[in-house]
Amino acid sequence: MDTVIRVGRAKAELFRTWKKPGDRALLIALTGGIGAGKSTVARAFEDLGAVVADADQIAREVVAPGTPGLDAIAKRFGAFLIDEDGALDRSRLAQIVFSDPVARADLEAITHPLIAQRADEVLSSAPPGGLAVYDVPLLAEAGTASGFDVVIVVDAPLEIRLQRLEARGMSRADAQARIRMQASEEQRRALASIWVTNAGSVEECQSLIGTVVTTWLKAS
């Protein structure tokens, strides 16, 4: 089996193999640092028929107006965090938990079980023999990689990541700071089954993921 697949400037490397589950979908964790292009890879999987659960989207859903999650946050941190439309004021909450480890732990104790429950509901809908992809940016930081059959890490050269973040309106200094706050390349490499270098175009990335699926993830 080839251990490297290239499509233009996009590349996938096979770091370790896995045992294919016989009675359920292959459970894949998709992770990577900010600006690496993980969302592009997630969309490519979705276009190929995979069931994709987006941890960031679910995190917003579980604290939407009227949810038990939002009620629990208001009870723990104060009703002043709920705006006039009944929505969570995320910026004010972030100010509270950013520099307070106890507050951050309390927030995670509220939201993480709700996120995990919803993600499991989404991923379990994938049929046997299919692909269930959990798009989770903080996999290395959360220490939950062992719960997946395959871990795919998306990376890109630092300068490309910075350019992508600047194109989103972020200052270079802010982009560099956010990258430094996340897991290191070494931490992610220790978890990876497949390492994707997403340094090319969207089309190259999509083609690469299609080949990864047929060659490695769905190969008999």
From TrEMBL:
Write down the Gene3D superfamilies for this protein, in alphabetical order.
Answer: P-loop containing nucleotide triphosphate hydrolases (3.40.50.300)
Q: Which SUPFAM superfamilies match?
A: P-loop containing nucleoside triphosphate hydrolases (SSF52540)
* Enzyme Commission identifier(s): 2.7.1.24
UniProt catalytic activity: 3'-dephospho-CoA + ATP = ADP + CoA + H(+)
The highest taxon in the source lineage is: Bacteria
The top EC class is transferase
Keywords assigned by UniProt, alphabetized:
ATP-binding, Coenzyme A biosynthesis, Cytoplasm, Kinase, Nucleotide-binding, Transferase
Provide the GO MF annotations for this entry. Answer: ATP binding; dephospho-CoA kinase activity
Example of a GO biological process term: coenzyme A biosynthetic process
Question: What is the protein's major site of localization?
Answer: cytoplasm
Q: List where in the cell it is found.
A: Cytoplasm
Q: Which CDD domains match?
A: DPCK
Q: Its pathway?
A: Cofactor biosynthesis; coenzyme A biosynthesis; CoA from (R)-pantothenate: step 5/5
Q: Which residues bind ATP?
A: 35-40
Name a single GO cellular component.
cytoplasm
The UniProt similarity line reads:
Belongs to the CoaE family.
Cite the PANTHER family for this sequence: BIFUNCTIONAL COENZYME A SYNTHASE-RELATED, DEPHOSPHO-COA KINASE-RELATED
Chain's role: Catalyzes the phosphorylation of the 3'-hydroxyl group of dephosphocoenzyme A to form coenzyme A.
Name the chain's protein: Dephospho-CoA kinase
What gene, per UniProt, encodes this protein? coaE2
